[in-house]
Design goal:
The complex is a heterodimer of chains A (160) and B (416). With 160 residues, chain A is of the alpha+beta class. Helices cover 34% and strands 19% of the residues of chain A. Chain A has one domain: Sufe protein. Chain: A (Alpha-Beta Complex). In chain A, strands 3-2-1-4 form a four-stranded mixed β-sheet, covered by helices on one side. Chain B is built from 14 helices and 17 strands. In chain B, the strands form five sheets. Chain B has a seven-stranded mixed β-sheet with strand order 4-10-9-8-7-5-6, sandwiched between helices. The longest helix of chain B is centred in the last third of the chain and has 22 residues. Classes of the chains: A alpha+beta (160), B alpha/beta (416). The interface between A and B is medium-sized, with 25 and 33 residues.
């Protein structure tokens, strides 16, 4: 029985993803926070607590805690880096475009859409069972921002 | 005159593999290496054909009507019951067909624990149980005001039986325990444990989902009161499973589901129940599933459960060796082959099991990754997830080698 294998170009585990996984940015709870969102994937056990503080309609501080696979943790780290300083509208738009990149039908967002380093996660699209790992924290962000404006509020719990 | 020494040549795995059409599949451009039989086994042609033949030649509803096909279908269903009972070495009148192990245990939780136990009584489980042998008891405990306690494990992944007698003492009425852990591979000494439970006045509900497919399991020998297992992990179809219970217990227990087939006489006001085991089989059953499960019993017995077990133990030894060679692997569960079956869970350095699973899948290797429906056990080891490789009669030593090479690639990708 032949058990040879065909090597695959690493379209998933890009250098930048592994770097964010090994050295996560913003890996701390924001305190005090306007919102804390607990996101869980009961299927695989990924857990992320996303917390942020808004100032004048912009994301002044954001951080995450939790544990999970490289994709979920790198995605959270990259999210925090990307949306810091963004307006609520800008962050919401970015999250929607990010989700569309991984889950939308067709080529949305267009290849030209500039989402910066987040582009590195586009490869997840080819791994359907891992898409939820990448979108978990983004769904948490959208859940939180949808409830904005928020003064100190009870934790929201979402399960994807 | 000397008697020739009998030597078992072992399984002809190439011939067995030819019985399983799915093993010819490729994943991408790689041959499938299926190391997830503890989740569900693949199905031999004989089982697929038995299901097919039932629908093609004998399909009709059972236990109703007088026509020839109905009689044939009923006959097929009841012969399947006898066949599966014989496989389990158990009286057939205690054998209830259900959907799966989960439903079997829910039946016991519902019709025994919630009905025949009293508030304050205690059910004992173990920390290594699958959620299907834990959550139904939690529900029963909440609804009936029962207590729940758990037997812990030692560092080797074996049950810590030092507290067993204390836990089994009054008010314990039931011990719910797995035969073989779906995570650790640990095989529990059910016969000895059941003896102690019975001595303390507690019944035993055995989750045999991971043992019945892989070793000879005799209900008479183990002496348990309830035994649950699924067809799909033992070469049978999905959607058919078994609860075996002592017939005298089934007599005492009220029905689980109400409806057709399970009744004796029905008026607008009240009903009386069919005899056991039919009292617990409401509605049209999965006749084709039962026929397929009987065919699976035939298939396994034609090869021999002892020979299958010996093959799996040889694979497991090789698997443990290969994992050691990969390096930086944490193996959860006993190293001693005497204490385990062919299910090995592990983690590689600090790489998450899902990343391990994805990289292996790219090479066509299917392993399980996650919490394995055993979150309390993940918490006990303080890990979010584990990767798990499991073997069966069609697994080859070369496939275990392929796993080792795949794990080498995980090390390269993650630079660990």
């Amino acid at each position: 029985m032949a058990l040879g294998y065909t090597p695959v170009d690493d379209d998933l585990y890009r250098e930048i993803i592994l770097d964010h996984y090994r050295n996560p940015r913003h890996h701390q709870a924001v305190d005090p926070a306007d919102r804390v969102i607990e996101a869980n994937n009961p299927l695989c056990g990924d857990e992320i607590d996303l917390s942020y503080r808004l100032d004048n309609g912009t994301v002044a501080a954001i951080g995450f805690m939790g544990r999970g696979c490289s994709i979920s943790q790198a995605s959270a780290s990259m999210l925090c880096e990307a949306v810091t300083g963004m307006s609520v509208e800008g962050a919401t738009s970015l999250a929607e475009r990010f989700r569309a990149m991984l889950t939308g039908d067709g080529a949305t967002p267009p290849d030209g859409d500039d989402i910066g380093d987040l582009e590195a996660l586009r490869g997840v699209r080819a791994y359907p069972v891992r898409v939820k790992c990448a979108t978990l924290v983004w769904n948490a962000l959208l859940e939180g921002l949808a409830a904005t404006p928020a003064s100190p509020a009870p934790a929201t719990r979402i399960e994807k | 005159m000397s008697t020739p020494v009998a030597t078992d040549p072992g399984l002809d795995v190439a011939r067995i593999r030819a019985d399983f059409p799915i093993l010819e599949r490729e994943i991408g451009t790689n041959p499938l290496v299926y190391l997830d039989s503890a989740a569900t086994s693949q199905k031999p042609r004989a089982v697929v054909d038995a299901v097919d033949a039932y629908y093609a030649t004998s399909n009709a509803n059972v236990h109703r009507g007088v026509h020839t096909l109905g009689n044939e279908a009923t006959d097929s269903f009841e012969r399947a019951r006898l066949r599966v009972a014989a496989f389990l070495d158990a009286p057939p009148e205690g054998l209830v067909f259900v959907r799966n192990t989960t439903e079997a245990i829910n039946l016991v939780a519902s019709s025994y624990a919630m009905q025949l136990l009293a508030p304050g009584d205690r059910i004992v489980v173990t920390v290594m149980e699958h959620h299907s042998n834990l959550v139904p008891w939690q529900l029963a405990a909440q609804r009936r005001g029962l207590q729940l306690a758990a037997i812990d494990i030692d560092e080797d992944g074996r049950l810590d039986l030092s507290t067993l007698d204390a836990l089994l003492a009054a008010p314990t009425r039931l011990l719910a325990i797995g035969h073989q852990s779906n995570v650790l591979g640990t095989v529990n000494d059910i016969r000895a444990i059941t003896e102690r439970a019975h001595a303390a006045g507690a019944l035993v509900c055995l989750d045999a989902a991971q043992s019945v497919p892989h070793m000879s399991v005799s209900a008479r020998d183990l002496d348990c009161d309830f035994i649950a297992f699924s067809g799909h992990k033992m070469c049978g179809p999905m959607g058919i499973g078994v609860l075996w219970a002592r017939p005298e217990l089934l007599e005492l227990m009220p029905p689980f589901l109400g409806g057709g087939s399970m009744i004796s006489r029905v008026t607008l006001e009240r009903s009386t129940w069919n005899t056991v085991p039919h009292k617990f089989e409401a509605g049209t059953p999965d006749v084709a599933g039962a026929v397929g499960l009987a065919a699976a019993c035939d298939y396994i017995d034609a090869i021999g459960r002892d020979r299958i077990h010996a093959h799996e133990m040889s694979l497991t030894r090789h698997l443990l060796d290969v994992l050691d060679e990969v390096g930086d692997i944490t193996i959860f569960g006993p190293r001693d082959l005497e204490a385990r079956g062919g299910v090995v869970s592990f983690n590689l350095a600090d790489v998450h099991a899902h990343d391990v699973g994805t990289i292996l899948d790219r090479r066509g290797i299917a392993v399980r990754a996650g919490h394995h429906c055993a979150q309390p056990l993940m918490a006990r080891y303080d890990v979010p997830s584990m990767a798990r490789a499991s073997v069966y009669l069609y697994t080859t030593h070369e496939e275990i080698d392929a796993l080792g090479e795949g794990l080498g690639e995980v090390r390269r990708v993650f630079r660990v």
